[in-house]
Write a structure and sequence with these properties.
This protein is α+β, with helices and mostly antiparallel strands. Helices cover about 40% and strands about 20% of the residues. The chain has 2 domains: about 80 residues; about 230 residues, BirA Bifunctional Protein, domain 2 (2-Layer Sandwich), CATH 3.30.930.10. Strands 1-5-6-10-9-8-7 form a 7-stranded mixed sheet, sandwiched between helices. Strands 2-4-3 form a 3-stranded antiparallel sheet. The structure holds phenylalanine (PHE).
């Protein structure tokens, strides 16, 4: 009897079962009512008492082996079944949804690239600033309206901690820490206490530039900005400089470019003037040099600053500034092909 059990055991171990149908056959053969296992238990009754113990152990081992093998195979086939139900390998792959750059970033990068080719390097600074870097070092008089809470976001009053209203604060930090010659471009987010509308927002982006060396003149300013305007808006672009005022530059100017949409003939974007105002600029005021410890007798320089949103709006003819901040995919997806 022991020998018989051994040979059945061996047959079970070597038995290959490759499909659910074969598994059913296996169950029928060994585990059904009339199967081999039950048959052996029948035979067991006739085993002499002195052999019962050893034969019983062998028989139970066989029983365990059979059940374990059956359960493992059952599990394996049910998992395979589940997988094949779920995975249809003939289905086309789902299209990958590429992201795109935000239009503000597209244009910011473009502007930085142009000035990098002219030898400017990017400088960065904090958005939360003190009064000195935003106003005092830049020659703002004590009673200037920009220092008012109406125009500027205050985090703390006396000592004044504020959100920077322009990235000129970065230029102050650069002048305090670097020695001329200096050629930097300062991109960043700025904050002003304005009501949100199609043309204004309390958060926007600026890029400002600063160029300091010996013998820098207004002609250098004009030449740098002309190159920039032609790179950004096309080589036929003209510029014009109108006198203006900023506390930190003297003389100061506002720069217009010829309207890139109508070529200067007049259209509704340029309000039939042929010109678009894009930036403020001027020669650094000697008072600014004094407050950061640069000698205005030896050095001179120019600065300029522009709002990125305005340039993006002109370039892509976007009518409402609020689109930039709303993360509406129908708007953003239109810029996916941009670098
Ligand atoms: N800081 C000015 C602004 O925010 C722009 C500017 C920069 C003007 C440098 C002149 C020189 O409007």
């Amino acid at each position: 009897m022991l020998q018989k059990i051994e040979s059945v055991k061996e047959a079970v171990i070597n038995r290959t079962v490759l499909s659910p149908a074969e598994l059913e056959q296996f169950r029928n053969e060994y585990l059904s009512k009339k199967g081999i296992l039950n048959q052996l238990f029948e035979d067991f009754k006739a085993v002499p008492a002195e052999e019962k113990k050893s034969v019983g152990i062998a028989l139970n081992e066989l029983k365990t082996l059979l059940h374990e093998k059956f359960e493992a195979l059952k599990l394996q086939f049910s998992q395979e079944q589940e997988l094949s139900n779920k995975t249809d390998l003939t289905r086309p792959a789902s299209p990958f949804n590429w992201g795109g750059r935000h239009p503000i970033n597209v244009v910011r990068k473009e502007i930085i690239d142009i000035f990098s080719r002219l030898g400017y390097v990017v400088a960065d600074g904090p958005e939360i600033e003190d009064d000195w870097h935003v106003f005092s070092a830049l020659n703002f008089p004590e009673e200037h309206p920009a220092r008012d809470m109406q125009d500027t976001f205050f985090i703390n009053h006396r000592p004044d901690i504020i959100l920077r209203t322009h990235t000129s604060s970065i230029q102050v930090r650069v002048m305090e820490t670097m020695k001329p010659p200096i050629r930097v471009i300062c991109p960043g987010r700025v904050f002003r206490n304005e009501a949100i509308s199609a043309r204004a927002h309390c958060i926007f982006h600026q890029i400002e530039g600063l160029y300091i060396d010996k013998n820098v003149s207004f002609a250098d300013l004009k030449q740098n900005l002309l190159v920039f305007a032609r790179e950004l808006f096309g080589e036929k672009t003209q510029i014009r400089l109108r006198p203006s005022y900023f506390p930190f530059t003297e003389p100061s100017a506002e720069m217009d470019v010829s309207c890139s949409i109508c070529g200067g003939k007049g259209c509704n974007v340029c309000k039939y003037t042929g010109w678009l105002e894009i930036l403020g600029c001027g020669m650094v005021d000697p008072n600014v040099f004094k407050s950061v410890g640069i000698d205005p007798v030896i050095y001179s320089g120019f600065a300029f600053g522009m709002g990125i949103e305005r340039i993006v709006m002109l370039k892509y003819q976007i009518k409402d500034l609020r689109h930039f901040f709303e993360n509406d995919l129908r708007f953003l997806e239109q810029f996916q092909s941009q670098f």
